[in-house]
Amino acid sequence: MDEARARAWLATAVEEARRGRAEGGIPIGAALYGGDGTLLGRGHNRRVQDGDPSAHAETTAFRDAGRQRTYRGTTMVTTLSPCWYCSGLVRQFGISRVIVGEAETFRGGHDWLAAHGVEIVLLHDAECAALMRRFAEEQPELWGEDIGE
C-alpha cells in the first residue's frame, strides 16, 4: 500500500476521531474503503454517546458501510490499533488490510491479524498518538473502561 494513499485514508478516520471527542466520546475513528478506493463507511467510537459497549469505531464504520457481498479486498482504517473485538470483526468478515494510525498508547490485535494473513500498515502517526495520550490523561477512568482495564 502506498503511504501517501494510506495517510489520505487515515485523514478520514482522524476526522471521525475528532468528531467523537467533540461529542464527549472517545477519540477513535475508523473508515472502511473498498478495493477500488471507494469510501464505503466511516464512524467513530460511540460507546459513551449511545451507551453501547459494542459501538467501537471500527464497528460503526463497518455498520455504516452496509451489507457488502464480500469484504475481500477492503481496507479498514483506524486511528488506534484495533482491540480484540475489532480484530475479530476484521477476521470474521475477511477484511484484507488494516491501516493503523498508532499503536503506542494501545497495542491491540494487529500482530495477530498479520499472523493470519491480514496486511497491516502501521503509520506511527503523531497526531493520532497525541489525541489518545491527551484523552487518556484527561479521562483515565473512561480510557481504562474502553480498553477493558
UniProtKB/TrEMBL annotation:
Top-level taxon: Bacteria
GTP-binding keyword on record: no
Record SUPFAM superfamilies: Cytidine deaminase-like
Keyword annotations from UniProtKB, A to Z: Cytoplasm, Hydrolase, Metal-binding, Zinc
Metabolic or biological pathway: Pyrimidine metabolism
Stretches assigned to the CMP/dCMP-type deaminase domain: 4-113
Organism whose genome encodes this protein: Streptomyces venezuelae
Location, primary (coarse class): cytoplasm
One Gene Ontology term from the biological process aspect of the record: pyrimidine-containing compound metabolic process
Cellular location(s): Cytoplasm
InterPro entries assigned: CMP_dCMP_dom, Cytidine_deaminase-like
GO molecular function, one term: diaminohydroxyphosphoribosylaminopyrimidine deaminase activity
Lineage of the organism: Bacteria, Bacillati, Actinomycetota, Actinomycetes, Kitasatosporales
Keyword Nuclease: no
Chain ranges passing through the membrane: none
Pfam families: dCMP_cyt_deam_1 (PF00383)
Name of the protein this chain belongs to: tRNA-specific adenosine deaminase
Cofactor(s) for this UniProt protein: Zn(2+)
Assembly, per entry: Homodimer.
Gene3D superfamilies per record: Cytidine Deaminase, domain 2
Entry GO CC: cytoplasm
